[in-house]
Specification:
Layout lengths: L2 H11 L10 H17 L4 H15 L10 H16 L14 E7 L5 H16 L3 E6 L4 H14 L2 E3 L7 H14 L4 E6 L7 H14 L3 E7 L3 H15 L3 E5 L8 H10 L3 E5 L7 E3 L2 H8 L5 H11 L2 H12 L5 H13 L3 H6 L4 H5 L10 H8 L3 H5 L6 H11 L3 H23 L11
Parallel strand pairs: 1-4, 1-5, 2-3, 2-4, 5-6, 6-7
Antiparallel strand pairs: 7-8
Bound molecules: guanosine-5'-diphosphate (GDP).
The site of guanosine-5'-diphosphate has 17 residues, from helix 5.
């Protein structure tokens, strides 16, 4: 995500490398490069200029205190300004009402229906809401089917009236239905067009007037850059929406939409969607996004993802095993499965500060652990629980079973032993003394 922008910003900061202090000349050079980087990322010229003017103003006259270099100071200033540009702090999501009504609008193909399914999943699993999806696209019969499939995947109900061509009526009936079925949120997926279109706008505006939504979310494909910003403006002029959803952030987006939308329509980005799977939806945090753009990783999101998978009792059990040097192949396999549940491996590693950049050209496949899994799968339960039991003949059998050779099995055994020692050492160390680790 935003790789090219990250690289260009990094190269802008190189202007300050080795400089003892910040001065007008090195600020000017850095700022010029930052502006170029933003414009190349499809940020509108006016926004880029205003942004860099602010950065220059903040940097000028800043004293470089002992602990940080001019480069670090500049990174901090840019990080603060990027955060501000994308909305400052996290926006609230309103689910008040009985039922709370959420209206989804956007162009056809922007990812509206996919997002509707993801939002239902998010509200159901993270906010314990019972959700009813409403198919209010009366033009494409396939739209009802698509929504029904997604609803099936996330386990929520759909309301539709295939014969009714009046979306306002459908929305109103859905509200009644939600009340009888005790649903506390309804999400109305509306029809889109390929381009901004008066009839489409009027239709969504009529639904809005009839149902008084708690949230009107404008969904936009982040790959469309400046067009995304123009479309947002057209929709906002007409609908006065409450928030933006950026989709397809898993693609090769340059960043223009994420950086310019808030400035242009003065509405916050509330969610970002990055994939076709139903759990690839994230609340948008401007500060974390700024950190990611600057290649400093998004350690906070990583920690949250890990916490979502964290099982206190299991962790205690594991800790004890490690302490007693009883960590075995089965435990290792279980840990691998946990990591895999957290999501796409490359995305996860990209969140670790410094790792994202280093890895951008490396093709990390999600099956990176496949070889190890194959070896452990070829062991008997006894062997998995007793790493010391692997005699040469057992190794032969495991090698055959996993399609590896003996050297690979031995290499893995050695790595496993080293890892075990390392884990034991870390486990026995008081956390307070470990640099960088607190709890
Ligand atoms: P709609 O016409 O606005 O309802 O758009 P859809 O939800 O049908 O999405 C259009 C296409 O984009 C579909 O092929 C989706 O699978 C795909 N899509 C939607 N959101 C994402 C996303 O976040 N990432 C990726 N890679 N594809 C997406």
């Amino acid at each position: 995500m935003f790789n090219s922008l990250s690289e260009k910003l990094e190269s802008a900061f190189k202007n300050l490398k080795g400089e003892a202090r910040i001065n007008d000349l090195n600020i000017a050079n850095t700022v010029k490069d930052i502006r170029r980087a933003l414009i190349d990322a499809d940020v509108n010229f006016k926004i880029a200029k205003e942004f860099t003017d602010k950065v220059r103003e903040k940097a000028t006259g800043e004293k470089v205190i002992n602990a940080i270099s001019p480069g670090q100071l500049m990174v901090k200033i840019v990080q603060d300004e990027l955060t501000e540009l994308m909305g400052g702090s996290e926006a609230q999501f309103n689910v008040t009402g009985n039922p709370a009504i959420i209206l989804i609008a956007g162009l056809q193909g922007s990812g509206k229906t996919t997002f509707t399914g993801k939002l239902a999943n998010y509200l159901k699993t993270k906010k314990a809401k019972s959700v009813l999806l409403v198919a209010a696209d009366v033009y494409r019969p396939a739209a009802i089917d698509q929504l029904t499939v997604l609803a099936g995947q996330v386990g929520v109900d759909v309301y539709s009236e295939p014969e009714n061509k009046n979306p306002v009526e459908i929305a109103q009936n859905a509200i009644k239905e939600a009340k009888t079925r005790n649903k506390n949120v309804i999400i109305i997926d509306t029809a889109g067009r390929l381009a901004v279109d008066e009839v489409m706008m009027t239709e969504v505006a009529n639904i809005k007037a009839a149902v008084n939504p708690a949230e009107i979310l404008f969904v936009v494909d982040s790959m469309t850059g400046q067009d995304a910003v123009n479309t947002a403006k057209a929709f906002n002029d007409r609908l006065d929406f409450t928030g933006v959803v950026l989709t397809k952030l898993d693609g090769d987006t340059r960043g223009g939409a994420a950086l310019s939308i808030k400035y242009t329509v003065n509405k916050p980005i509330k969610f970002v969607s990055s994939g076709e799977k139903m759990d690839t939806l994230d609340v948008f945090y401007p500060d974390r996004m700024a950190q990611r753009i600057l290649g400093m990783g998004d350690i906070t999101s990583l920690v949250e993802k890990a916490q979502a998978q964290y099982d206190e009792a299991e962790a205690k059990k594991l800790e004890k095993k490690i302490r007693k040097n009883q960590f075995d192949f089965q435990d290792f396999m279980d840990q691998l499965q946990q990591i895999k549940k957290m999501g796409n491996l490359k995305d996860l590693m990209g969140m670790i500060p410094g790792v994202g950049k280093a890895m951008k050209d490396i093709d990390i496949k999600d099956d990176a652990f496949k070889g190890i899994e194959a070896m452990i799968s070829s062991m008997t339960p006894f062997e998995r629980a007793n790493p010391d039991s692997l005699t040469p003949s057992r190794k032969q059998r495991i090698a055959r079973g996993s399609g590896k050779d003996i050297a690979e099995i031995n290499a893995f055994m050695k790595q496993f032993e080293q890892m075990k020692q390392m884990m034991k050492m870390m486990n026995n160390m008081p956390m307070g003394r470990m640099p960088g680790l607190r709890r």
